[in-house]
């Protein structure tokens, strides 16, 4: 017979009997967790002074104290600061380059990279920003390439003062291709490189799966592309502020180069190499 009175209730371990042990988890970068009290779910982007910063899929940031009250895959964990070894484990930037921890930004070079618009500049900064600061390269948006010849004449490219230009929709027969060909024949050809991707807009360079699509929708030519995309996806698009919010929603899904199409990746890397060549 089972003698329920024979065990010593004061034997070692009696306090832990039946207690659920919550495991600890180092808050390493890109770890996805949910904060129980608020339901906020996001990826770890930094840990400073016992505070963890999470970024959700819309790009929204929230700060929480390290400790208990977090879930990973629905299971409770206690978040702790990453060890030095864990902190050094992430040795790649968002672009895939080798990271240089605590390296100061280099004094800006005279050379520049021009992009067509603000969205292009924000995307390049998010993925290649760390690399560009190490190299001292400034990215400027020029609001389209129609006036590229005038812009180059004002900038006066030359030795040690190169210009790389990233162009949307650079395909044979397009206006953009004609502008690029004119630059290649112009007086600054040796120190200017114009490259581009085939997409109508830089939005398309984000892999559609990042915003829950199998493919970016086809938009009729008589409809402004960004407005057409938002309308197709059921997003507000009446005002420019709506378009800006839509872009931030898309940009928030980009974490590394793996979230972008290779047609853009290669072009940006080419420009960085061109403007940093000694």
UniProtKB/TrEMBL annotation:
Pfam families: DUF3097_C, DUF3097_N
Residue ranges constituting the DUF3097 domain according to the UniProt record: 25-82, 111-276
InterPro entries: DUF3097_C, DUF3097_N
Domain of life: Bacteria
Signal peptide span: none
Protein name: DUF3097 domain-containing protein
């Amino acid at each position: 017979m089972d003698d329920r009175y024979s065990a010593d209730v004061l034997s070692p371990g009696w306090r832990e009997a039946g207690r659920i042990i919550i495991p600890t988890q180092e808050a390493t970068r890109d770890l996805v967790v949910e904060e129980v009290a608020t339901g906020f779910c996001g990826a770890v982007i930094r840990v400073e002074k016992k505070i963890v910063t999470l970024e959700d899929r819309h790009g929204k940031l929230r700060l929480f104290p390290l400790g208990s009250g977090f879930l990973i895959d629905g299971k409770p964990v206690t978040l702790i600061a990453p060890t030095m070894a864990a902190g050094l484990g992430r040795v790649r930037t968002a672009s895939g380059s080798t990271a240089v921890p605590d390296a100061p930004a280099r004094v800006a070079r005279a050379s520049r990279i021009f992009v067509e618009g603000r969205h292009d500049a924000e995307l390049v900064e998010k993925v290649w920003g760390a690399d560009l600061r190490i190299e001292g390269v400034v990215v400027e948006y020029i609001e389209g390439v129609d006036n590229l010849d005038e812009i180059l004449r004002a900038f006066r490219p030359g030795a040690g003062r190169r210009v790389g230009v990233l162009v949307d929709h650079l395909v044979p027969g397009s206006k953009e291709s004609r502008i690029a060909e004119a630059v290649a024949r112009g007086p600054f050809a040796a120190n200017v490189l114009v490259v581009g991707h085939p997409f109508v807009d830089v939005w398309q360079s984000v892999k559609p799966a990042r915003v829950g699509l199998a493919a970016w929708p086809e938009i009729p030519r008589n409809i402004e592309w960004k407005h057409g995309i938002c309308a197709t996806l059921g997003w507000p698009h009446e005002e420019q502020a709506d378009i800006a919010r839509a872009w931030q929603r898309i940009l928030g899904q980009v974490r590394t180069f793996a979230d972008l199409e290779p047609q853009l990746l290669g072009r940006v890397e080419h420009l960085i190499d061109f403007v940093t060549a000694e």
